Amino acid sequence: MKYMNVKKSLAFNMLLSLGILSGCNSGYSVISIEGGRVSMTAKYDRPDADQEVSAILKNYKMELDSIMSPVIGYAARNLESYRPESPMSNLMSDLLRNTAVQVLGKPADVAVMNIGGIRNSFTKGEITFGNVFEISPFENSFCVLVMRGDVLQELFTQIAAVHGEGLSGAKLEITKDGQLLSASVNGQPIEPSKEYTVATIDYLAEGNDKMPAFKKAKSKIIPDKLLLRSLLMDYVKDCHRKGIFIDAKVEGRIVVR
Length: 257
Fold this sequence. Notes:
- This protein is 38% helix and 19% strand.
- It is built from eight helices and eleven strands.
- A hairpin with a 5-residue loop joins strand 6 (170-174) and strand 7 (180-185).
- Strands 5-2-9-4-10 form a five-stranded mixed beta sheet. A four-stranded mixed beta sheet has the order 8-7-6-11, covered by helices on one side. The chain has a two-stranded antiparallel sheet with strand order 1-3.
């Protein structure tokens, strides 16, 4: 068992180091990679093997701690993610909707963020670089789609079926067994032939996570260098510069009847 844990720890630290360099706007780029092999043998099963394992991981840990531990902002309260609607999923979907300004010149009509893509939460108080990385560990890119109203209605039906996802710009009423009762965008009924702009991440835009309606979009724009994690990082830092604590709340975007 210890053998497997050592292998996983080494792999995690090495991949995380590479992920930080490649996925964040650090100003650095990888120009070469050198490595060696640490043979995982039975010697690491000895009772005193922990010291040897710690020595192997020490350099990785020191480097990662120096990057992950700095405080970049503060949360006003615990912000968790859950269905049908939650503070953290509202925060993330609002971030996506507002990021569309960089592409469209205005916020998207709707934004969707999957609950499964939010891997952790903010706790009240300090927010570190590491906290943001824990929430968004994947290399998900921001994108904007254009969808007809009837396809958007289909998407909302799929969201109701899984009992909710992160949603901004729209309101759904669903049943306890996952049926869609009603849907509106910016307070107005959905017009089947109207075109709506929808902000999301590339993973969902490909129809994943039980939302295949995304594949019926009329068009899709994926701007360069707009990773979800980087957007969240910049948002937290910007709020900190302005003296604002990160906050969000449940607002009745998805109501269960």
